Structures are given as C-alpha cells and as structure tokens.
Amino acid sequence: MSKNIRFFSIFILGFTAYYFFDFLFFKTIQTFSKDLFHSKAIAHIIAYSVTLIPLIVTLKILLPQRNILDLFSLNKPIIKGFLLALTGTTPMLIGYLIHFKTISKINFESLFINTLSSAFFEEIIFRAFLIGILYRFTRLGFLSSALSGSLLFAQVHLYQSQNLIELTEIFTITFLGSIFFAWAYFESEYNLWTAIFLHFFMNLYWEIFNISENVSGNFYGNLYKLLSIVVLILVIIYYNRKNKIPMEMTWKNLFIKTREVQS
After folding, report:
1. Residue 1 confidence (pLDDT)
2. How far is CA 155 from the centre of its chain?
3. Residue boundaries of the structural domains of the chain
4. What is the pLDDT of residues 136-162, one digit of tens each?
5. Which tens digit of pLDDT belongs to each residue from 194-205?
6. Rounded Cα gap, residues 11 and 1, in angstroms
7. Distance CA 106, CA 120 (A)
8. How far is Cα 50 from Cα 21, in angstroms, rounded to an integer?
9. How far apart are CA 136 and CA 178, in angstroms?
10. pLDDT in tens, 10-19
11. DSSP string spanning 172-213?
12. Separation between Cα atoms, residue 70 and residue 53, nearest integer Å
C-alpha cells in the first residue's frame, strides 16, 4: 500500500510541477529561442523539450532502472508505427481529396508545428506519460488510466473556439480521440510511434485541406475521420491476430488489472 501511495504521490507531484513549469515558462522559452534562432519551428521544439524536464526527472525517480526512451515508448519500431498510421488514415486522405480543396498557401513552419511537432510532444506528455505510465506500472485498467489524461488533453484544445456548442463538440471529439490514440498505442505493442504518426497524419490532412477552422469539423470532415478510426482498429486487430499477439484491452482490465503489468 505504501509503495502505491509513494508512486502516485510522486507521479502527481511530477505532473503538477510540469504543468506549472509549462504554464509559466513555455512562452518565455519559445520567445527567447525564436529571437535566438529566428525560427518559430525550432523555438517550438526547444520550448517543449525544456518543459519536459520535470516529467523526465519524475520518471527517473519512479523507475530509475528504466531508460527514458523505454519509458516514453520511443524505443519501438518507427516504420511499423508509420505504416499502421498511414494505412489507417488513408480514408481521410482519399475522402478529403474528393470533397475538399487544398489550402491556397502553406506556411511550412506553422504546418510543422501543428502537425509533426505537436503530435510528437503531445503524445509523449498525454499518452506515454499521463496514460501509459499509469497503465504500464500500476494496477489501473485502461479506462481508469486514460480518463484523467484524456480530460486534460481535451481541455488544452478548448482555445479553438468561444462558442459553447463548438466548445462542447471540441471537448468531446478530442476526449474520444485521446482514448483512441491510447488504444492504438497500447495495442501496437506499446509503440508510441503509432499514436504519433496517427496524430500527425490526422492533423496534416486537416491542415492542408479547407475543412474547418477547428477540430469540431463538419459532416464529411468527421465522416472520413471516423472511417479512418474504424480502418485502423481493423488493421491492428488483423495484424495482432496474424502475428498471434494477444490484444491488450480486455473486459477484465478496463478498470482494474488483476495483476500489475510492466511493459
């Protein structure tokens, strides 16, 4: 019992330290880096990297024998994650090519920030740390582990609108999206690259086509996104069955696992 209390206490304190460090210093670091390197993209990477320090320290305190790439699940096959995500998001690409026009002008720095950089760091923070560490190293089940991280993930996207209805839609979509990204991450043998590239491709297609001003979207925008989710689920299930990999999510571990899992 005391071991569990220590683990959760350090975990909560570590994330709280990260949250306030990010809140207080992210923009300052970003502005300083932009003035130094004259690049918004580089500044974005540096600001995210520096504000990750409290999470890294937390993990080294909690699990000193494990290396950081392992704890963030970045030591898995990149190609596998890329191919799973590319295959799964094909319906979005095809559907958007049919129903939407591409944007007239692309700002490549902003595109990089809103797609690859954001996807990479958000998956590390929300899926690998907030959800993954709880699921992998405690007895919390999938939904129990994913709830708080997904609520926070949804909350940080509420800047996209001031309209109450749109805010409700944004919150719901991003919350469910977080649950789905976590599922894809766990079911691809804890390969965070699957979630990173899935997040990247979904953001990329949303950015380069004239779909919507925010994530709430419209009928065709959300239809092809939903089709992509279904396709990826089927692809992962097929891949796991073909390679005799047991599914991670079962009814027995939705809330509490019968034994502690360390992956």
Report:
1. 58
2. 14
3. 1-65, 76-253
4. 999 999 999 999 999 999 998 888 878
5. 999 999 999 999
6. 15
7. 21
8. 9
9. 17
10. 999 999 999 9
11. HHHHHHHHHHHHHHHHTTS-HHHHHHHHHHHHHHHHHB---S
12. 16
